[in-house]
């Protein structure tokens, strides 16, 4: 799950980025408002963590601008401003959640997972398709009740496909969700991961749409 972190405090930003990486997120980190707005307009992030006191352009103005541009992604506001009026203003401008510093890393991760699930119409904690169940918090997968061991990128790919069940995703879309800045991606990387997932979970789960991309079949979809 690729997210944008907009935080100008170097110590806090570095800690949040490192911690979220350990919890399975791919994190692009920017340190000012104009950079945050530019990235949010240009890239299909799963979610954003947005500080309000950014240099160059206040976080609320960044949020208002991207919402006016119809950028539709969950935004969690992270700020030291704890007045009720500040929280109300942030939510009214377009924030989906609001966390006051200092923040617990596990809580932040849980809130991000919940926001992403809901944005994809998936309110439940675990995702399922056919006999495969994925637990995002535990980063665990079971098939027919039996645990299945997946590599990090295999899990991330399955998670992305399950969030978008029934929707065809191109290789480029999948790469942009799975890899953050500066990561070299081989041309057949997604194909390799799909092959390994099929070997572990069965061929019927992920459908290839020739010339377009891949789709995870919903449980009710015909095979």
Automatic annotation (TrEMBL):
Q: Which Gene3D superfamilies match?
A: 3.40.50.2300, 6.10.250.690, Winged helix-like DNA-binding domain superfamily/Winged helix DNA-binding domain (1.10.10.10)
Q: Where is the OmpR/PhoB-type domain?
A: 124-218
The family database entries (Pfam families) matched by this protein are listed as:
Response_reg (PF00072), Trans_reg_C (PF00486)
Tell me the domain of life: Bacteria
Looking up CDD domains in the UniProt record yields: REC_OmpR_PmrA-like (cd17624), trans_reg_C (cd00383)
Q: Which SUPFAM superfamilies match?
A: CheY-like
Keyword Transcription regulation listed? The answer is: yes
**What SMART domains is this protein classified in?**
REC, Trans_reg_C
Q: What compartments host this protein?
A: Cytoplasm
Q: DNA-binding: is it a keyword of this entry? A: yes
DNA-binding positions: 124-218
Q: Which UniProt keywords apply?
A: Cytoplasm, DNA-binding, Phosphoprotein, Transcription, Transcription regulation, Two-component regulatory system
Which residues, renumbered to this chain, carry the PTM 4-aspartylphosphate? 51
Q: Pinpoint the Response regulatory domain residues.
A: 2-116
Give the PANTHER family listed for this entry: REGULATOR OF RPOS (PTHR48111), TRANSCRIPTIONAL REGULATORY PROTEIN QSEB (PTHR48111:SF35)
> Which protein is depicted?
Quorum sensing response regulator transcription factor QseB
Q: Which organism is it from?
A: Variovorax defluvii
């Amino acid at each position: 799950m690729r997210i944008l972190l907009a935080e100008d405090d170097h110590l806090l930003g570095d800690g949040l980025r490192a911690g979220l990486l350990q919890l399975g997120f791919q994190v692009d980190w920017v340190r000012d408002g104009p950079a945050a707005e530019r990235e949010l307009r240009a890239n299909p992030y799963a979610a954003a963590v947005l500080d309000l006191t950014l240099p160059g352009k206040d976080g609320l103005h960044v949020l208002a601008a991207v919402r006016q541009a119809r950028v539709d992604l969950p935004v969690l506001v992270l700020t030291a401003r704890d007045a009720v009026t500040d929280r109300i203003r942030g939510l009214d401008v377009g924030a989906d959640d609001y966390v006051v510093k200092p923040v617990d890393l596990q809580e932040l991760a849980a809130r991000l997972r919940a926001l992403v699930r809901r944005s994809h119409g998936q309110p439940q904690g675990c995702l399922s398709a056919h006999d495969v169940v994925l637990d995002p918090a535990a980063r665990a997968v079971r098939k027919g009740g039996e645990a299945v061991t997946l590599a990090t990128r295999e899990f991330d790919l399955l998670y992305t496909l399950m969030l978008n069940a029934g929707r065809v995703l191109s290789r480029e879309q999948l790469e942009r969700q799975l890899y953050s800045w500066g990561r070299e991606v081989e041309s057949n990387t997604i194909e390799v991961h799909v092959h390994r997932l099929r070997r572990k979970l069965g061929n019927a789960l992920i459908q290839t749409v020739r010339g377009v991309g891949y789709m995870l079949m919903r449980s009710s979809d015909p095979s």
